[in-house]
Amino acid sequence: MTTAATPAVRKTSTRLADGRELIYFDDTEPYVSGAATRRLDDPRPLPDRFAPVHDEHGDPQPVTGPELRRDPLTGEWIAIAAHRMNRTFLPPADANPLAPARPGATYQDGEIPAEDYDVVVFENRFPSLLAVPGLTEGPSDRDGEPLWTVRPAAGRCEVVCFSADPTQSLRTVGPRRMRTIVEAWADRTAALGALPGIEEVFVFENRGKEIGVTLHHPHGQIYAFPYVTPRTARMLEQARAHTARTGRLLGRDVLDAELRHGARVVLESEHWVAYVPFAARWPVEVHLAPRRDVPDLPALDDDERADLAVTYLALLDRLDRFFEDDGTSIPLPYISGWHQAPVGEGRDVSRLHLEAFSVLRAPNKLKYLAGVESGAGAWISDTTPEKIAARLKELA
């Protein structure tokens, strides 16, 4: 299936050998005009991912998929996905599963069958969340214990490849390609949010071995959760209380307060503002928010998306120059994630923003979470938000 996602991006959907969806987002010719199409078949001899599996006696058993278990002490859902223990881990360059197919090769165990691509999105081969056909039951008790609540982890996990070149990073893709990535993020947020049972869509990127990345190819991920995640639930609680008390949007008031104060605002464009938050947790942390009140990425208009493609790259450039070692910039290991409105309740008090942060506190020094942070959730910052902001301003 091929459609024009925007006048400048062409979207083409196909299926991999095991049934997972793969989508090309093309912005170059001859593909963007439809004069040519990327390779759509997958020659790998992969079994259908939902085919029955054989037990130790050789008898076929239905696929069960990952499950969610509720922590009775916190009420939080924990995904139990033991199959991820066998996922690909830091493969050699010639076995990179996110690289395009080698020219002339009849077969390779890569996820993308085309010999080149612009941006690609596909369902994760080792997902934490997976909607298995036929498994639709709601929460139930395990082993007759009412405290042990389980349910299928019926969500979806997607991988977003930012470039066919494994030596690139998101920072280096350029504004034109970044715009295509923004379009892919918005498209997938809308599509995943429309799936049955999905309550939240989280778009994020992990970069750097210090973060725990298992593939160095430039890529991000998108999770479609069948529940509202704990951090989002907490932010919704604060937002609802603020609106009930003031009649205003909390995200709007936070942005306006940072703009009035000015000291922690590090980057401004026509449509976007980047600032270090008043109570930053991490050694390097910055938030990016639109000037207009919007709930999620699909709600951004064309001008906001085009501006984001430039502004976000400028922000990433500063982050990659935040630390130096003997006069050489250190590519920053970071996590970045888009906090969007949930699919259902809470959209009226939600406001889109991105949070990017790093565990690097100095060259060759990482912030390890202390006992009170990991064990009690009581955060302690090793620096001040004002110092972080001053360094980011210095790099303008």
Automatic annotation (TrEMBL):
Feature: compositional bias, Basic and acidic residues: 38-59
UniProtKB keywords: Carbohydrate metabolism, Galactose metabolism, Metal-binding, Nucleotidyltransferase, Transferase, Zinc
Name the record gives this protein: Galactose-1-phosphate uridylyltransferase
Domain of life: Bacteria
PROSITE patterns, alphabetized: GAL_P_UDP_TRANSF_I
Annotated stretches, region: Disordered: 33-70
Cofactor: Zn(2+)
Protein family (similarity comment): Belongs to the galactose-1-phosphate uridylyltransferase type 1 family.
Gene that this polypeptide is encoded by: galT1
GO biological process, any: galactose catabolic process via UDP-galactose, Leloir pathway
Organism ancestry: Bacteria, Bacillati, Actinomycetota, Actinomycetes, Micrococcales
The keyword Nucleotidyltransferase is annotated on this UniProt entry: yes
Domain named Galactose-1-phosphate uridyl transferase N-terminal: residues: 66-228
